[in-house]
Amino acid sequence: MALCVLHMGPSLRISLFFFFLCPSPFPAANLRPGAEQRVVFITARVHPGETPSSFVCQGIIDFLVSQHPIAKVLRDHLVFKIAPMLNPDGVYLGNYRCSLMGFDLNRHWANPSPWAHPTLHGVKQLIIQMYNDPKINLEFYIDIHAHSTMMNGFMYGNIFEDEERFQRQAVFPKLLCQNAEDFSYSSTSFNRDAVKAGTGRRFLGGLLNDTSYCYTLEVSFYSYIVGGTTSAVPYTEEACILLQSRVLRLPGRELGIKGGEE
Ligand SMILES: [Zn+2]
């Protein structure tokens, strides 16, 4: 198993891991004819007021299209589908949480209307289409949000009856916590609250097979506290605008790439 970390700029220190089986370091496994596509699906800005969600998503995109060797390996082995703005009408209008018609789109994943929730309906259709394609394995779904009261970056995940599946799902945020100074596993929570039933990670966690991992990634509007300290480090817009993703660490020596840190 190879493991790498994307680091989202000097201050917006939300990092994402993508860990994947890598039987051969360099062939473009996803691009071989007839090969199974391993897909990471990312959505952002379903809540229009959560601007840090867009900064994080932009950092991911910038890194993935870069010439960094890890970005190349990721592109060779995984397919990234990214919907960077699920609620463009709400963003245009300056809404905080709702769409043009006043809906909180992240409560309508179960039955989105093509008329009332067109962006959500379109993305859901695409995901279901991929789910039904035997040559596509949708391995990760990550929905990026921003949080107005919590500090740090953290995640929401799902609870499953299958304890082994639940523990596997906890690995990703645990790895983030170990490798990203601003990510908090202690703030990460797993739930199946009725009020969250219509969210992306809840709905897709129930739809996709048990080898898929579905999360909400939250980043504080304000700041993060590094473990062992008490001072808050602000997530600044200036740093976000730099939009420079960098690799923080590359424990995956299996990738055969030297100089994992930048
Ligand atoms: Zn949100």
Provide a descriptive summary of the structure in words.
- The protein is an alpha/beta fold and 262 residues long.
- It has one domain (2-255): 3-Layer(aba) Sandwich (Aminopeptidase).
- Helices cover 28% and strands 23% of the residues.
- The protein is built from seven helices and eleven strands.
- It has helices at residues 51-64, 69-77, 88-93, 118-131, 163-179, 200-207, 237-242, and strands at 2-7, 15-20, 37-44, 79-83, 136-147, 153-157, 189-190, 213-220, 223-225, 232-234, 246-247.
- It has a six-stranded mixed β-sheet with strand order 4-3-5-8-6-7, sandwiched between helices. A three-stranded antiparallel β-sheet has the order 2-1-11, sandwiched between helices.
- A hairpin with a 6-residue loop joins strand 9 (223-225) and strand 10.
- The longest helix has 17 residues, at 163-179.
- The chain is globular, with a radius of gyration of 18 Å.
- The protein starts with a strand and ends in a 15-residue tail after the last strand.
- Mean pLDDT is 82; it is low at 1-24 and 241-262.
- The protein binds zinc ion.
- GO terms for molecular function: metallocarboxypeptidase activity; zinc ion binding.
- Its cofactor is Zn(2+).
- Residues 1-262 form the Peptidase M14 domain.
- Belongs to the peptidase M14 family.
